[in-house]
């Protein structure tokens, strides 16, 4: 039976881990077949700090997604975030040996390989090398150089760098969960794929993804990624402030934030009060909603100001770099009441809430098209772009029968030969001239990067 092109994304967040299985339907839209969600234990500010707990959370999310969809997961595209992420702008060039031949994918690959050899700080590794614009023999602003003539090929690159140890820890967690790693994507880039339209990317837009542990930023202009950043604050610090400010437990603080929280204190009347049950027979606590909003407001202002500093660092105030489409807010934190108005007030830029329904099929549930799942949807789209056969159809009984195997404390699975073969098979086919430059570059880079991580993990054993 011929394998379907089933894609799987795994979003390892600070508050939740989401495994999402999807495929393209006949209209080219993304159809979600199954979603698994588990509480994220062992991840802080986007970085794994407890391997055992992270493995258990991943297994729980994967098993739920398999049971919901009736598919068995082989491999996943995973999102990378955390405060260790930084990005740099870099320009490089190659002199072509035979300028009489047209420029092909090989020339671009040569240039990418050159950038990949850049010297980084100790312990850092390049995650993405994203070409922005090309220059051929002095002719500027070329977006697609394949098929053109020229002796000197030059390009400006957006290079995303991260901590090697953090990336390898994620790889170890995934392999120990019994699945393979087929690709790595920076989380703000995945979220951007899911919630932004091409028109917005052309006009200039800043995507702000407010997660539990981090707030991610991706800036696009003229359809090209211009700037990425990760701010090490998210929804969790707001919850912590409420917990401290109101002297209540974390669970109650989170509920208060979600149900009654507002980023704009002026909205609440002085006499609006919510009563919280006391612990173990103690008297209930009465909390003023105005005070609650003041606590939330102070922290949200701090987060947005940090992100706005990054937007200004990109050069938004320069008329040529102006972001005409303004700001798009996504992630769980974007569901806070009145946050859109507060962001507009602080930045003076048009703002909307981004839902990942831009590319989803019409019959997708309301839950999946929530900003909470923006990164997961983007990772599935990335997996489809890689032409991954990441899952195969099985009888539901088979999944249930296998469930006890994933229960032990810290299982370590050997990667199955047929799974490795399934991943590696499509990667050997090289047809550079037929693909768009960006896709081809992404693939070839991911192949080498994922192989590097696989080698490292195998040697570690």
Automatic annotation (TrEMBL):
<dbReference type="GO" id="GO:0051301">
    <property type="term" value="P:cell division"/>
</dbReference>
<protein>
    <recommendedName>
        <fullName>Cell division protein FtsA</fullName>
    </recommendedName>
</protein>
<keyword id="KW-0472">Membrane</keyword>
<keyword id="KW-0132">Cell division</keyword>
<dbReference type="InterPro" id="IPR003494">
    <property type="entry name" value="SHS2_FtsA"/>
</dbReference>
<dbReference type="Pfam" id="PF14450">
    <property type="entry name" value="FtsA"/>
</dbReference>
<dbReference type="InterPro" id="IPR020823">
    <property type="entry name" value="Cell_div_FtsA"/>
</dbReference>
<feature type="domain" description="SHS2">
    <location>
        <begin position="7"/>
        <end position="195"/>
    </location>
</feature>
<keyword id="KW-1003">Cell membrane</keyword>
<dbReference type="InterPro" id="IPR043129">
    <property type="entry name" value="ATPase_NBD"/>
</dbReference>
<comment type="function">
    <text>Cell division protein that is involved in the assembly of the Z ring. May serve as a membrane anchor for the Z ring.</text>
</comment>
<keyword id="KW-0131">Cell cycle</keyword>
<comment type="similarity">
    <text>Belongs to the FtsA/MreB family.</text>
</comment>
<dbReference type="InterPro" id="IPR050696">
    <property type="entry name" value="FtsA/MreB"/>
</dbReference>
<dbReference type="Pfam" id="PF02491">
    <property type="entry name" value="SHS2_FTSA"/>
</dbReference>
<comment type="subunit">
    <text>Self-interacts. Interacts with FtsZ.</text>
</comment>
